[in-house]
Design goal:
- It is built from no helices and 16 strands.
- It is an all-beta fold.
- The strands form 4 sheets. A 7-stranded mixed β-sheet has the order 2-15-14-4-5-10-11, with no helix packed on it. A 5-stranded antiparallel β-sheet has the order 3-13-12-7-8, with no helix packed on it. Strands 1-16 form a two-stranded antiparallel sheet.
Amino acid sequence: MHRTHHTLPVALALVVLVSCGPATGPSTPAPGLAPSSPIISEVMAGTPGNNNFEFIELHNPSDQPIDLQGWSLWYRLATSEEDLPVYEWTRPALIPPRGFYLLVRSGEEIGRTPDARFEQSLNTSGGGLLLRNPQKQTQDRLTWGKAPEAYRQGEPAPASMAGYSLQRRQERSQRVAATRAPTARRKSAT
């Protein structure tokens, strides 16, 4: 079922190159990997006065639904060598064609209904996210600030500022903007 989400208080247009994109580059998936896999489209790691106001949004850039069952999302701090699980899809969870999937930090209300909730905190000063397929291969990544070397692909985005989200500007692009005003957000799946 699709539903429209309300906008978030997130948009200053500071476009920067960051370390994000599929494991093999900004537009070409690795041999044997699905050409149309979900991407990490937006991340917020807290607001002033509330470090737990966090969300991660995935986007399906393809014309076919994507089932996230068996996929996983991982986080790592720059100072660590440990991959921390953010979320693992153990049941079917479809992202409709050109649709979105919203993960929100447990206990937080962000003005949109989440598709799922996560417990792992994110750090505004730096970190990295990896999205892995059911075969445990990295399909997408996003790093910012003091990003972990093992997660990097190119230069990370600047450290996330509280109240700003990192939002991918184009599918499979390495261009990300820090945003702070409403962004017309879209449909999500459940």
